[in-house]
Amino acid sequence: MVHIKLLQTAGFLAFFLLPFVAAQTSPDVTVENLLNMMTEARGGREKMDRLRNMYQFGSTIEGGLPGSFEEWSTARLQHRQIYERTGIDSTLTVNDGRRGWLRDWNGSVHALEGIDAQNEIADAYQNRYLLTGTSLAHTELVGVDKTGKFYILECFPQGGRTITYYIDKHTYLPTKSERLNDANVLTTYFSDWRDVEGIKFPFNIRRSTGGSAYDTVINIKSIVFNLSDLSGAFAAPQHQVYDTRFSVGSRSLHIPFKRNNNFILLQGSINGSAPLWFILDTGASITVVNKDRASELGLKLFGDLQIGTSGASTNLSIARDVTFSLRGAEVVHQRAGAISLSIFEAGLGLPMGGILGYDFISRFVISIDFDTRTIGLFEPSSYRYKGAGRAVSFTLEGGRPFVKANIKAFPRKAAIPGKFEVDSGDTKTLYLNAPFVKEHRLASASSATGEKGSTANYISSPSANGRVAAFILGPFVFKDVPAGFSLGDSGFVASADYAGLIGNAILDRYRVIIDYSRRRLVLEPSGCTDEPFVRQRSFGALIVAQGSALNNFLVARVTKESPADKAGLRNGDLITAVNSTSSFRLTLEQIQQYLSEEGRKLSLTIKRGGETLVIPITVTLN
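Predicted structure:
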C-alpha cells in the first residue's frame, strides 16, 4: 500500500553515456561522433584513460534536511555509496560488480533484486563510463528535443533501467537525465561544471520527481582519483540489527487481530502508549506512524518529504527511536516514516498508531490464520516450517514481496504472465495496474469510477470492476476471480514495473506464512479455499467516523440508485442514533455491520442541515 524511495541520490554523478554503438538520425551526427565530442568536452581521451577509480564527497539537502554522501566507484562496475541525513539516518549501497546490497536506515541488509537491482546496474554502468569513457551498454541517438537545443540519447544497460539524456548542442555536456522511478519520471539536472585534474564534473546535481519543494540537491565538495587501497570496500555490508525482543523464548503465538474492511488490524503500542491499532501491510516498504498522533505520543518529527502510495503521494516526515510493541514481541529503537492516517481513522473508526511494513515484517517469520484471526511471530533463524502447505518464492523489491503468476483474462485466450505484489494491506482479490490493463485491453476509461488520488486521499484512484477467468500462482489456480482494473495515471497503480496486486481476499483462503528471510510465501488450505468468489453486495452508503473520539458518523457518499439512496439517505447526513441508541455508544464497525445484514430493520436518526429526521430502513443489498 505504501512505498517510498528512501534513496533517490544513489549514483547521482553516474550519467555519462556509453559505448560506441551506431544509431543515426542525420548524416552529420552519429552516436560515435557525439560521444567522442562529449569525451573531448570533458577533457579528452588521454586524461580519462588515466582514471582507475574515484572517490566523491558532498553535501545534500532534501525536504529541509541537511546531509552528506560518500561514493566510491571503479571501472569494474563496482560501487559503494553512503548517504546520511545528518543526525537522523544513514544508508549504505554496495555493488561488487556482480551483486548489490542495501543496508537500510534501521541497519537491515538485503540483496538488491528486481527493479532495485536494475537501478543499481544502471548506475554502475554509468560510473564505468565516468572513469573510462567506454562501456558495454547499448546507446542510441534518438534525435533533437523540440527546442532544438539538445541531442537526445537513450542508454540501455544490460539488466538495468533505460536512461534518456539531454546533451547541450553547444557544450556537449549533459544537462539532465530521465528514467522511470515507479510510476514517476526521475529527472536529474546537472550544472556548475568544474575541472578536476583537467576533467569536467558537475558540482551541482538536482534530482526531482515533479515537485520542486521535494527535490534532492547535491553539492560536490571534493573528488579524488586512483585511490591505492579499496580492499573490502565492495564486500557485502554487515547487518547492524539487534532490535527484536520476545517476552519469552523466540516466538509469540496467538496474537489476535481484527478484520475490519478486510484489513489485518493488530492492537499494540508505540513507546509504551495506550493501545492503538496497526495495519499489517506487506505492501508498505517502510513502517510508518500516524503523524496526527505524533504529539500525544511524544515523537519528534523531522523533514518535509514525500512518500509514494497506491493512488498518489503524500507528505512524509521521519521519526526516530520508535518502539513498536505487540503482545509478546517488540521491535525497538526504530526509524519510521510519519504520515497522516486520518483517512484510515475515518474509514475504520479506530485510533490508528501506524502501518507495520518492511521494517517490522522483515524481523519475523509471520503466520496469519484467518480462521482463528490470530498471527504468530517467530525468530527467523530458528524457525522451521513443518506444515503441509505449498511454497511460492518471491523477490523483495523496495521492501515489498513480488511473485510471478499468470492471469487468464478470458476463457478462450492464453494466460498472460506478470509480476504481482503480495499486499496484505490491500483488501481486494486482485488489482491490476493501469499499464497492464491498457496493454491487454481489460477495461475502458468510460467504465471508470472513483476519484483521482490526492495528498489527503492518497489511496484513491479511478478504476473499473470485473472478473478474470483464472489466476495461476505457482501450484494454486483460482477461477472466476473478481478484479479491479486501474485506470489511474498516478501512484503505484500507474506503474508499468509490475502487473498488479494480490490482496487479502485471496490470501484469506489460506493459513499464510510470510518469510522474508527465505523469500518464501507458504499457503496452507483452509475450509474456504475452494469456495467460489461471490460478488460483493452492499447497501450503497459510505459511513465514516469523525471527532476526537471517532463517534460522530457521517454519510460521506451515497451511491446513486442504491438501496441507501432509495431509503432516503443523502451525502452529508450525520447519524446520531440507531434504533434509539446514541451514536456515542456505538462504533463505526457496529454501524457497518448493521448495514451489511440483509433484512435487518433499523431506525436511523440523522441530522440534515438544521433538521432532525428519523428514517426507517429495511436493509437490502445490491
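Summary: The longest helix spans residues 114-132.
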